Amino acid sequence: MSTTFTPGLRVAETTLITKDRILPLQGDVAVSKGQHLLAEEVVARTDLPGKVTPLNAANVLGCLPGEVKKSLLIKAGDKVEKDQVIAVSKSFFGLFTSKLKSPVTGSLDSVSDITGQLILRDPPVPVEVEAYIDGRVTEVFEHEGVEVQAVGSLIQGIFGVGGETYGCIKMCCGSPADVLDAAHIPEDAERKILVGGSLVTFDAIKKAIDLGASAVVVGGFDSIDLRKLLGYEQGVAITGSEQLGITLILTEGFGKITMANRTFELLRKNQGRKASCSGATQIRAGVMRPEIIITKKDVSHHIEAEQEIAALEVGALVRIIREPHFGALGRVTALPPELTALETEAKVRVLEVELESTSERIVLPRANIEMIED
């Protein structure tokens, strides 16, 4: 039998989930190995250096660069307030005085005898890294962060925007084909992860934001509405840093696309349970998928190994990622080993898929599908 490894979305009811929670700069780790954590708990802290502001002191004071240090009323490392006089220079036998005021609140970072320039730095920016998932600390990286593990359900999406968030899952639609409009957004949406069907409208997203919802998980979203939501055209980049007031995760793609039944039923099964989710997406090198994670408290964290990457073989569940069947799910029914010529005359390996929705069997390039963990 011909097999190959194909990247794809994971929709797993029970799997081992491992997350590295790492600081952007070295700092202090606040937890210890073996400690059980809630998603909201801080695991590490650090301070990012503040913004730098250069100031040509020699020019303002009317003195030579080498004379700036003698004119300073403070020294490197001292804190300063905005508009505080930090240097005084006298000229013409003391008849004229020039004063230099700090343009920012922060500290004096350095003084140059060559250019007569001061470097002022804003106050440091505190950064805290949270656990993100309810789990156990399995590794501590000194001054850097920790590894957190849990057992639970993992659902990956196609595309998302917005950062990490938490909340209880609330189903807002009765079937994976339903449209999530403003009328379906409940008044008790605050801190909830709202689950829709095939599409969410722009008005529904705005209402969810106004009501304080944590996230919306849905099959599809109109690309024009996404541009309206972001305020700009989304290019090929990493998402997840958007400040929208909500995280949006698309499980199928753009447009009105029925959510995969397996995904919808897994979310429905976990209604009312706490989940962690992130809209961070990167579709090029170092693929990153938006995700929903529902950890299980009643399952031991001691799992010996991750599940092996599934091989593409007959019977595998796949999703088609190219038109004209974009978003459709199906089962692989044949994997011809020989190369097949396409209409473009290119010769590629193909596979035969039986569509779940219509039972129709179609032949398409293997590059046009991605696997879904079954």
**Uncertain parts:** 1-6, 299-309
Number of strands: 32
CATH architecture of the largest domain: 3-Layer(bba) Sandwich
- Topology-level CATH name of the largest domain: Glucose Oxidase, domain 1
Taking the alpha carbons of the first and last residues, their distance comes to 19 Å
> Which structural class do the helices and strands define?
mainly beta
Share in helix:
under 10%
What is the CATH domain class of the largest domain? Answer: Alpha Beta
Secondary structure tally, helices = 5
Rough outline: elongated
What would the average pLDDT be, to the nearest integer? 88
> What is the total number of structural domains?
3
Largest sheet: 11 strands, mixed
Tell me the fraction of residues in β-strands, as a range: 35-45%
Rounded Rg: 28 Å
Structure overview:
The protein has 374 residues and is mainly beta. It has three domains: 156 residues, Glucose Oxidase, domain 1, CATH 3.50.30; 70 residues, OB fold (Dihydrolipoamide Acetyltransferase, E2P) (Beta Barrel), CATH 2.40.50; 62 residues, Roll (SH3 type barrels), CATH 2.30.30. 9% of the residues lie in helices and 42% in strands. Strands 3, 5, 14, 15, 16, 17, 19, 21, 22, 23 and 24 form an eleven-stranded mixed beta sheet that branches. A six-stranded mixed beta sheet has the order 2-32-26-27-30-31, with no helix packed on it. A hairpin with a 4-residue loop joins strand 9 and strand 10. 34% of the residues are buried. The N terminus is likely disordered.
